[in-house]
Amino acid sequence: MIDCRGKLLLPGLIDAHGHAGHCLIRGIGADTSPLWMKIVTPTYWHQTTRDFWAAEGMVSGLERLRAGVTTGVSIISSMPRSDDPEFAVAHAHAYAQLGLRNIICTGPAGLPWPREVTRWETGSPVRRSISLTEMMDGAEATIQTLDGQADGRIKVYLTPFTIVPSIETSNISTPDQAVKLTAEDRHHARVVRELARKYGVRLHSDAFAGHIRLAAQDTENALLGPDIHIQHCWGISPAEIDILAETQTPVTHAPPGRNTPVIEMMARGITVAVTTDGTAPNRYFDLLQTARLFQSVQHVLRGHDRYFFPPGKAFEMITIDAAKVLGLDHEIGSLEVAKKADLLVVDMGAPHLTPDWQPVHRLIAQGVGSDVRTVMVNGKLIMEDRRITSVDEAEALAEGNRVARELVTRAGLTEHLRDPGWGQLYRTFDRPVTLPGEGIDRPG
């Protein structure tokens, strides 16, 4: 029996797109946005160890759990890396231990092939050249090892970096850049589709303006359709919106986003969910705050018209709509008979959530992840009144700090951790201290 008086009972929140690894690199490169991918992607591909992915899985899982995110997507690295299946296994093990649902997204990066990676199994760096075939072999091994594990709480989705690898991978491509599919584009789509069909797994990928129009040229293996959800969709054209609607391809969006036509997509019946996109360089896994940011950005873009995305719709976009884009709305995303018992108990008695009316309005307008008191997944309590009993949280965070500092040292990124010019404004301590002047009347 759980006393829920003065509290709100919700379905578990669902983060349908996030990056594994981000929790232990956040802050690095945060002040150099144009260089961020150039800093962190080589770090992921050359400096991470299996211990890193295990520790990061635990830290990210703890953050999600404490924010009420019961199902989270974890893309291995900023640009997917699947040459070592043990990375995904280590990450997923942490989520399984915590009792959460986790969707491991593994697959090939974009062009060119082969790609250079560094492995650390021996304790020393061993640089290797990896082909597309080897990346696909690693993804297959991950599916074989993880999909359906932990009573079905762990799933694997096949995840190429983008749906068309020959054009801009992280930004809009203009019509003169996105003209025709290449032979490599078609081969990439074919091998991805073949592996997905072999194991009956779903797909996930990124797409930006130009990708959708080009992908549709492949009538046999296009990475479009109801079995794939695509992230971002910045700057896509009305014609590309039509393609998404015709192919029934769902979309996920991380605010603030860049020129993503959310309303226009929804007007065509396309399911759109709100996601965090991970925690680096300066994000968080708090989906309540993410939904509020999404709502605020849309209000600004729509002339401060608050009829767009009222609180109830914003809430659906991190619960049932997110379940739909993942193809899991028959199991999770709402409180219904015969669905999985993924539940949250939210304390609505805090000052920032008072007075006690309009609960959905208060949840979306003022709620934060730390208002979640109790979490149940698959009918099992995994956090009760903010207490997590499955792991030693302090020990897990200490391990996260340790491997993060090792990573920074290996990668030579120490300079990126400094805050020049601010040293007189704050101090941090790694041991208890006695501050002077306790109880003394001091001027000012």
Count the strands?
Answer: 15
Main structural class: alpha/beta
Order of helices and strands: EEEHHEHEEEHEHEHEHEHEHHHEHEEH
Number of helices: 13
Distance between the termini: 52 Å
Unreliable sequence segments? 438-444
> What's the overall geometry?
globular
Radius of gyration: 22 Å
Short description:
By secondary structure, the chain is an alpha/beta fold. 34% of the residues lie in helices and 16% in strands.
Furnish the topology, listing elements before pairings.
Elements: E1 7-11, E2 13-15, E3 19-20, H1 36-47, H2 50-66, E4 69-76, H3 85-98, E5 101-106, E6 115-119, E7 126-130, H4 132-146, E8 154-158, H5 183-199, E9 203-207, H6 211-215, E10 228-232, H7 238-247, E11 251-253, H8 262-267, E12 272-274, H9 287-301, H10 311-316, H11 320-325, E13 343-347, H12 359-366, E14 372-377, E15 380-383, H13 393-411
Parallel strand pairs: 2-4, 3-4, 4-5, 5-8, 9-10, 10-11, 11-12
Antiparallel strand pairs: 1-13, 6-7, 13-14, 14-15
